[in-house]
Amino acid sequence: MPDFLIVILAVIFVLGIAINIHEFGHFIVAKMFGMRVEAYSFFGLGPRIWGYKVGHTDYRISAIPLGAYVKLYGDEATAALEGGESDGERVPDSELYELRPRWQKFLVMIGGPFMNIMLALAIPFGAALINGVPAMPSPVVANVKAGGAAEAAGVKVGDRIIAFEGVENPTWDRIRNDSIVLAEKQVPIIVERDGKRIDLNITPTKTEIQGNTIGSLDFEPTEMVVLTPQPDSPAALAGIQKGDKAISINGTTVSSTDSFRELVQANKDAPIKLAVVRNNEVKELTVQAKIGEDGRAIIGTAISNQSLDKEKATIGQAAAFAVNSNLEIIRMTGKVFGQMFAGERSPKDAGLAGPIGIVQLIAQIVREAGFAGLVSILALISLNLGVFNLLPIPLLDGGQIMVLGIEKFLSFFGKTLSMAIKEKIQLVGLAVILLLMVTTIFFDVSRLFGK
């Protein structure tokens, strides 16, 4: 299958599920309350270009390729964005959205973000039940880059990281995530060496990857890199099997997923001598990488970090793992935005991604890891979509909830918002969203051309 077609299918898969699970949340809550749903557009806003009607609901594809929507009878505030006003059919008052109590409207609005967050939780929950959850020993330094931040700080191979930025017994994921947003900022770190606690300070090196500024600690933990080849990929053709553990590339030891990627890229499209462990035996394989459209070497295998032993998870442990995984993403996002609003990081360096950036990310993942690798990015995008929609911006669900709050406040004085005012509020929201979109597209393009 052509590369561009695979990317298109991957984008449709990820964004289609993330957006439609959101709209399904609105749809199912409205149905539960007996509200009549006029239209459910699986794809696009604006005029209907194709669809079919079941009962009172028109399931359709719309003309403007910007998301999807659910249109309820009696909710005309966004009619211009949702294919025009209702068809004039007389609908019983009991089925009209606009005549329902505010608490029911609130639940309809919250239904979309709720479903996104549930999907973001369900993916790591299922993975934990199937694969187990990692044990959590503190990371041990496997190698230190010469002249890098770790060497300058006095970190040595064999050190166990027992505290980072004031957090005791941090996981490697937390250390790496925090270092990414702390470029050129001094960070306290405590290591255990020969049974003694040693206080150090490390300043992550500022580096740029695909146009994004990040911090690097210049050391890697002890970990095992596990391979999962894509069908018909260079890795599969070379005989790599699911579960193979990478030992070395061209004689250089593979100590982490990062080092694996770096060694593959450094080799470009020359044949790679890859040593793996399979069933406790070492096997030597030759992989002929290919160069992708973005100029990166591709061998077509997903790589995962097994630095930590897996423990079989109970339902409670899997749920805790899923919640903590999502809270970590929210924590890191909040940290980046906090730096941005404090003037410590520019919006461009914050890594804000628009439509182009999201498509680039999905394309990179499907090329490197196949469709199986899209599951984790689906969870990430679904979480971000759910949280973003809760922001109090008109047109978003959070903005709709804000309007409900304003109406409740005005009701104490016997007043309400007219339909004309509601429509103007929605247009303001549309302007804000379009401005955000233009801004993020500008950052995407700037990163794309390295400016």
Give the helices and strands, then pairings.
Blueprint: H1 3-32, E1 37-43, E2 45-54, E3 57-64, E4 69-72, H2 102-131, E5 133-134, E6 141-144, H3 149-153, E7 160-164, E8 167-168, H4 172-180, E9 187-193, E10 196-202, E11 205-209, E12 212-216, E13 219-221, E14 225-229, H5 234-237, E15 245-249, E16 252-253, H6 257-267, E17 271-278, E18 281-288, E19 290-291, E20 297-298, E21 301-305, E22 310-311, H7 315-341, H8 355-369, H9 374-388, H10 397-411, H11 419-448
Parallel strand pairs: 1-3
Antiparallel strand pairs: 1-4, 2-3, 5-22, 6-13, 7-8, 7-9, 9-10, 11-12, 14-15, 14-21, 15-16, 15-17, 17-18, 19-20
Number of strands: 22
Q: Spans of 5+ residues with little confidence (pLDDT < 50)?
A: none
User: Shape, please?
Assistant: globular
Name given to the CATH homologous superfamily of the domain at 141-221: PDZ domain
Mean pLDDT: 84
Radius of gyration: 25 Å
Give the termini distance in whole angstroms: 33 Å
Largest sheet: 6 strands, antiparallel
Number of helical stretches of at least 4 residues:
11
- Helix-strand category: alpha+beta
Assembly type of the shown chains?
single chain
Strand proportion, as a percent range, falls in 15-25%
CATH C-level category of the domain at 141-221: Mainly Beta
CATH architecture of the domain at 141-221: Roll
Name the helicity range. Answer: 40-55%
Q: What's the CATH topology name of the domain at 141-221?
A: Pdz3 Domain
